[in-house]
């Protein structure tokens, strides 16, 4: 849909204005301390994985309102991420969910991924719902279940996920457990933890040596009294017990309101255990809203910790997997993802513009106002010209969302796939 030539046509009317704005920003005396060309290069290099389950409209337990033209197969999903990648050149990987995305035609999928310039980054296991023909039920838990047969089924499912992932060159298994209890007394809290640790160890042992296991936490939902892995401390303890290939995954929506997530991120970097992110936006809990739509300042502060840690030689240098995990009810899913990626890039750009030398001086001098103002200066900078420049130099659209609409991309997808196609897993 978005050939290089078509993108050039879509960019043409925006080019002169963009160049004026970029030059104005790059030469701004306020950014004297920053290397703007290096910032643009870092934005070009930054990639965030798109979840296969965000390509269809999400729902709530009250219902779902389909967008039309949704991807019904893994091939369609790769096609959709290909559209995002063509437009912003920052979405070069896909997170799969098993069993919703079990790969069938491996050579065909490999070829398609290559054509679109995409890779599979992570495979997510699913033991939060029962599948058809599955002998054991996860109603009362999976890896933490009291019954060994249920635990073994859940362990095997995770091992199967690794096997599917290997076929498509993935290197990461993401484990999120819905396990927990709804009422006091329902579950023995310590024993549930120990059973989970034992089950994770069995999966970890079966994982190839070049794979990473990401252990995600969540404070509540679907269990409301206790979750077996409710917080980053529990995830960290499990990862430390498992080994160096186990890392903590921070899902922004998996925190109670007002949690200082940036401090958690800083701590995990310090301990060498930050494996990855699930980006999304939230007002109250796991709302799965567009990343940066509700708390852009928090997103900036998270990236501020990441940029600061990356510059600190005493912090272990480790790969962090950046992934989106969101899917809501009212937006076009692809437009939502374009917005999310842009908000992520903007937060990163702003964090890269922080005058770190001046900030360190202000912190040492306990100059509270100056320190805060330095962060605010970076946060309030209009970085849109820098982000657009990164899109453009990487071969994408100056304004991806505008290009998506100008092309009538959703209408074309509806023509191809029909009004009522339903994305697997939803
Ligand atoms: Mn998540």
UniProtKB/TrEMBL annotation:
This is TIM barrel protein. Keywords: Isomerase, Manganese, Metal-binding. It comes from Hymenobacter monticola. InterPro entries: L-rhamnose_isomerase (IPR050337), Xyl_isomerase-like_sf (IPR036237), Xyl_isomerase-like_TIM-brl (IPR013022). Pfam families: AP_endonuc_2 (PF01261). Residues 104-288 form the Xylose isomerase-like TIM barrel domain. The keyword Hydrolase does not apply.
């Amino acid at each position: 849909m978005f050939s290089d030539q078509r993108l050039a046509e879509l960019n043409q009317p925006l080019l002169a204005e963009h160049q004026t704005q970029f030059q104005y920003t790059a030469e701004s005396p306020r950014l004297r301390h920053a290397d703007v060309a290096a910032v643009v290069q870092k934005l070009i290099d930054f990639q965030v994985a798109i979840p296969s389950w965000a390509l269809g409209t999400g729902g709530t337990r009250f219902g779902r309102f389909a967008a039309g033209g949704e991807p019904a197969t893994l091939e369609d999903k790769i096609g959709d991420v290909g559209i995002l990648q063509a437009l912003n050149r920052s979405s070069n990987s896909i997170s799969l969910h098993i069993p919703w995305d079990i790969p069938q035609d491996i050579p065909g999928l490999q070829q398609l991924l290559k054509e679109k310039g995409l890779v599979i980054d992570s495979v997510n296991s699913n033991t939060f719902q029962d599948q058809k023909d599955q002998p054991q039920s996860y109603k009362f838990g999976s890896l933490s279940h009291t019954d060994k047969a249920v635990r073994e089924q859940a362990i095997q499912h995770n091992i199967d996920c690794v096997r599917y992932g290997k076929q498509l060159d993935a290197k990461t298994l993401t484990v999120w457990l819905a396990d927990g209890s709804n009422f006091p007394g329902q579950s023995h809290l310590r024993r549930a933890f120990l059973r989970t640790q034992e089950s994770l160890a069995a999966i970890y042992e079966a994982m190839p040596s070049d794979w990473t296991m990401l252990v995600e936490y969540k404070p509540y939902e679907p269990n409301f009294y206790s979750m077996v892995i409710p917080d980053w401390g529990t995830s960290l303890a499990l990862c430390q017990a498992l080994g160096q290939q186990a890392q903590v995954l921070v899902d922004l929506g998996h925190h109670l309101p007002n949690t200082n997530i940036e401090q958690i991120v800083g701590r995990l970097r310090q301990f060498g255990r930050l494996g990855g992110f699930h980006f999304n936006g939230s007002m109250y809990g796991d709302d799965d809203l567009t990343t940066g739509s509700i708390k852009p300042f928090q997103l900036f502060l998270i990236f501020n910790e990441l940029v600061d840690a990356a510059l600190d030689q005493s912090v272990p240098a480790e790969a962090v997997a950046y992934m989106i995990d969101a899917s809501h009810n009212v937006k076009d899913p692809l437009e939502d993802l374009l917005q999310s990626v842009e908000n992520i890039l903007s937060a990163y750009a702003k964090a890269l513009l922080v005058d770190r030398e001046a900030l360190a001086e202000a912190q040492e001098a306990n100059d509270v106002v100056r320190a805060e103002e330095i962060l605010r200066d970076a946060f309030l900078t209009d970085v849109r010209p820098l982000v657009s420049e990164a899109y453009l130099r990487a071969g994408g659209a100056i304004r991806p969302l505008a290009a998506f609409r100008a092309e009538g991309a959703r209408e074309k997808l509806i023509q191809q796939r029909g009004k009522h196609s339903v994305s697997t897993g939803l």
